[in-house]
Design brief:
By secondary structure, this protein is mainly α. It has one domain (about 1-64). It has one helix and no strands. It has one helix at about 1-64.
């Protein structure tokens, strides 16, 4: 009986550790994806600003 209880406790402990580990991994993954989104937006803003600058430059050269 005691051996069976010890086995159940060990299984329960491993299960809880596994759940905790997965929670930590999920949080870390969310942080990584938000960082990737921020980096993607930065690149988008840089590209849009460069396009705006070139369009203004072309507009002024055509005007003159």
């Amino acid at each position: 009986m005691k051996k069976d209880q010890a086995r159940k406790l060990k299984k329960e402990k491993k299960r809880k550790e596994h759940i905790q580990k997965n929670k930590i991994l999920r949080v870390a993954q969310k942080k990584v994806t938000t960082l990737e989104k921020i980096a993607g937006k930065k690149h988008l803003y840089i590209i849009l600003s460069m396009a705006l600058i070139t369009s203004v430059f072309i507009f002024y050269t055509l005007r003159n």
